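Sample pair:
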Amino acid sequence: MSESRIEWWLASLGLTIVWARLRVREAGTAEVFDSDGNTLAYDSEDSARAALMDAEFVSWDGLDEEDALERGFSLSQVAPPDADDDASLRDRMVLTLGARA
């Protein structure tokens, strides 16, 4: 089994956070698991990142508290979703917050 690196990306729409998981494979290809449960394949990490940015997603690792507050939440309020498998993860890819930070 080949090694891969996982990155989480998010888009915010009002009080809703939509997650996307970017998986970069050892061979340099990439795939994005989206909130609809689709896995989209890309020929490179760069093309996958470009697609995410075109869809107004930002890297979770690149956010600081000020950026998060501008998007309507605090970093202490949210964390990337976690599940044992993609089927379970799909239900956790959209988060609705109760109130703005």
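The helical segments are 45-54, 65-70, 86-90.
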